[in-house]
Batch of 2 targets.
Target 1
Amino acid sequence: MNGPVVGVDDGVPRCPWAGAAPGTMRDYHDHEWGRPVEGESAHLERLTLEAFQSGLSWATILAKRPAFREVFAGFDAERVAAYDAADVERLMGDARIVRNRRKIEAALVNAAATVELREDGGLEALVRSHAPAVPPAPATTEEQQTTSPESLALSKDLKRRGFVFVGPTTMFALMEAIGIFDPHLVGCHRRAASATLTRCSSD
């Protein structure tokens, strides 16, 4: 049974994937994961990066995130939706990002779908409308889910609106990352803080 791991340097309990020693993943765990984000571009960024992460480690995506933000124009939906075949080839030649043609093309498709979704409340409102009524409260990694009825519903809703690379597992990871519910293990020092932030963001 894998519960929270205590940091070797500070004695603070954290979700095991954050590691016991200081580093990029622990910083992400402590300061970003499970905390709400605001605005269309922030939601499009997280959705896009979760899609690029599929089959890779999140550490890889974090290391490349500054480059992703640069080449995708700060995830401005209108600007990315206007990218053409030449832009796809430009991105395929940029070694600073994940050079996967299907994922790059998906980012353009999803940017266009995000622009269209503005007429129906917007991406942020749609994602947050799928928050679970009863948030999970896992005490160990064995109890953690990788999908949920809500992530399946969000996946179907987004696909119906033209989004791609938004499977239920990817959407569950998105929901965890942006604090749709508190994803931290019971006993992790961030759990109570994330729950407070999530409640405040929905008040």
Target 2
Amino acid sequence: MLTVAVLISGAGSNLRALLEAASDPAFPARIVVVGADREASGLAHAEEFGIPSFVVPWRGGDQRAEWGDELLAQLDVWQPDLVVLSGLMRLLPPAVVAAWSPRLVNTHPAYLPEFPGAHGVRDALAAGVTETGASVIVVDDGVDSGPILAQERVSVLPGDDEHSLHERIKPVERHLLIDVVRRIAIGELDLDLAAASTP
């Protein structure tokens, strides 16, 4: 059984989808802990499903490394097989990436390498494209630059704004994330091979 830690910053819609999937006895992974960089509303999902949680308040600037060390200490307590970033709106310090990658995955609301960064949906609209997408990647030291594990296209419709487009991307992100976690758990997706095959 694959054990998973999920890190969030906000409402945790992807987290909830994973919790619901993992509550099925046939699903080959279990969430063992949920962490956040602030008192995020999504922690309520963990409480509802009886999953332990922790908060390591974000410390920017010259305290970013110390924040990363505290995060590592929390993860070490739980020793998950996989860490999922589910709307964690922070770039992880290099020490965290070094310790966990490639067992560290993230979702992104764009068809990478198109529109990386914090405003993927807004940037797609600004570029005037007719389609964007969602991706699940291995986290590396770059910004949304790690090996791509799964992705799917989403059409940009006439009249879309950032909210409406993002609302259509979110279910695709959830479906991709759940499937990636399932494939890792059953050995169908090898994260070491995925990382090694990317230049």
